[in-house]
Amino acid sequence: MRPHPHEQGFLMVEALVALAIAALMAALVFDSVWQMGRTAIAASDQRQALLLARSVLAAASVPGPASPIPATGTEGRMAWSITSEPFASAAQDGLALASVRVAVRDAATGRVLARLATLKTQQ
Q1: What is the spatial distance between Cα 48 and Cα 25, in angstroms, rounded to a whole number?
Q2: Average pLDDT for the chain
Q3: Half-sphere exposure in the Cβ direction for 120 (13 Å, CA)
Q4: Given 2.40.50, 3.40.1350, 3.30.420, 3.30.1300, which CATH number is that of 7-121?
Q5: Residues whose CB falls within 8 Å of the CB of residue 73, separated by 6 or more in sequence, listed in order
Q6: Fewest C-beta atoms under 10 Å: which of 1, 59, 72, 122?
């Protein structure tokens, strides 16, 4: 049976619309997967920065006149810095304390990935 003259081009329009919808869906799926990948990389970087900050802070918190670790350094793609200053709330007759802070940044962008702080005794 032959289609009516007003139905002859209808199949091609349907195919083009279906192809456009499929392309739009594929673009949305690709964007979602790409965003999930970027989020996973950012979470991994932050986890590594936190581990590095804990390690540097532990080394810098060793009691004594000087820190056994340099004030700045790099580890892979991350740069860290340590600041230490006398703790203002220390009692006059009590133990002298110093505030130690560690910041870990992405060496390429300078974005802060982790910050940690603690107190150590001064001698």
Answers
A1: 35
A2: 86
A3: 20
A4: 3.30.1300
A5: 56, 79, 80
A6: 1
